[in-house]
Design brief:
Blueprint (H helix, E strand, L loop, with lengths): L3 H34 L2 H8 L9 E2 L7 E2 L7 E11 L9 E13 L4 E12 L8 H26 L5 E6 L12 H21 L3 E5 L8 H9 L15 H5 L7 E2 L3 E2 L14 E7 L4 E7 H4 L2 H17 L5 H10 L3 H17 L8 H8 L3
Parallel strand pairs: 3-6, 6-7
Antiparallel strand pairs: 1-9, 2-8, 3-4, 4-5, 7-11, 10-11
């Protein structure tokens, strides 16, 4: 049980210092941004630097913006979100559940909506490794796998209508860098194969990131300080993120320039599916959109994709309605989790498996005092 009095005392000791430091860093970064806008030759030099941090590339001016209007013609959108029940060793059976929530919306004179979920169960017979890392990687795989299947099915229903697959999260699978070599190699290849599938089917997709914490553009400022190029000698950027920089100049309902990040991980992607990113002020927040190269290079398709994303945000009161509804289809509640393990237990009894619950799991259910 949380001692709220002690908690508030601890909060008062630590948190104000953070906000003061963050406020100072943001003010300094804003001043340096204004200075960089007036010194484009410094920006051009920093674009060529690779140490101590990799800097993304872009065309045109750093602070270029353009308006994005909601899409006004008929279109279709498919979105998939995932959730899971991790294996619980106290339940006695090493298996887990992945639940993919699927949404297919059609907008226009013949509007339609399909919302459903696809549950899949995996045991040690399917995969010896049932760690949380494995479950998370399989969940992402299933989201894109189901997404490709459903997007292809959606196109068959409306072959002449613009179609977008809207993914929840990144297309740059940074988190694999922290996984074991076996997991990284296996799932990066699989994810890239699925991105290739969208390319082969010519189904545009975009990774939508709300409240992004990426710091690709912050590297520009870090390198400027490292090379002593700025008029401020003691700048720090520990709490600054890209959206802070974007909010200095990005108006509502406008997009930024298109940026191409550099990393060892991205060098493993085929060039045509390698993601770029941009920022879009949806009217409610500044979001990050990650877009495969083959989509980003086609100005007409890119404009269509951004307009559909903007329309989804408008329809969802600030957040894409397809993503929010996919999440609702995917979510696994506490009662669902209990049902999952209860059914497994009953099935174990049916087949005389001899499986056992731990006393800890039984105490959680029945203990009283």
């Amino acid at each position: 049980m949380l001692d709220k009095v002690k908690f508030l005392q601890e909060l008062e000791l630590s948190v104000p210092r953070f906000f003061k430091a963050a406020g100072y860093e943001l003010t300094t970064t804003r001043e340096l941004f204004s200075w960089l806008v007036k010194n484009p030759e410094t920006v051009e030099f920093l674009k060529t630097t690779t140490t101590p941090h990799l800097v993304p590339s872009w065309e045109g001016f750093f602070d270029t913006t353009s308006e994005v209007r909601p899409y006004e013609k008929p279109y279709a959108v498919v979105s998939v979100d995932g959730s899971q029940v991790y294996p619980d060793r106290h339940q006695g059976i090493p298996c887990y559940l992945l639940n993919s929530g699927v949404v297919h919306f059609v907008y226009g004179q013949t509007g339609a909506a399909r919302l459903f979920s696809i549950p899949r169960v995996y045991t040690q017979l399917d995969e010896q490794d049932t760690s949380e890392d494995m479950v998370n990687c399989r969940r992402t795989e299933q989201e894109f796998e189901v997404g490709l299947e459903q997007a292809c099915a959606a196109r068959l229903l409306n072959p002449d209508m613009p179609l977008l697959f809207l993914a929840d999260g990144t297309l740059i699978f940074w988190y694999l860098e922290t996984k074991s070599p076996q997991l990284k190699d296996r799932f990066l290849k699989r994810y890239i194969d699925l991105l290739e599938g969208f390319y082969q089917e010519r189904i545009p997709l975009v990774g939508y990131i709300s409240l992004p914490r990426a710091r690709d553009l912050v590297s520009l400022f870090k390198n400027g300080s490292a090379y002593n190029l700025f008029p401020v000698s003691a700048a720090s950027y520990d709490t600054v993120v890209d959206t802070d920089i974007m909010n200095f100049f990005l108006p509502s309902n406008h997009r930024s320039a298109l940026f191409t990040p550099y990393s060892r991980l991205l060098s493993l992607y085929p060039e045509h599916v390698r993601p770029s990113f941009l920022y879009l002020h949806s009217g409610d927040e500044t979001i990050r959109l990650e877009i495969p190269a083959w989509v980003a290079r086609d100005e007409e398709v890119l404009a269509q994709v951004l307009s559909i994303v903007k329309d989804q945000c408008t329809k969802g009161n600030g957040y894409p309605v397809a993503l929010s509804e996919a999440h609702e289809q995917a979510v696994i509640k506490a009662g669902d989790r209990e049902f999952f393990f209860k059914m497994i237990s009953l099935m174990g009894d049916k087949y005389n498996s001899g499986h056992h619950h731990s006393q800890k799991s039984l105490k959680k259910r029945f203990v009283s005092f």
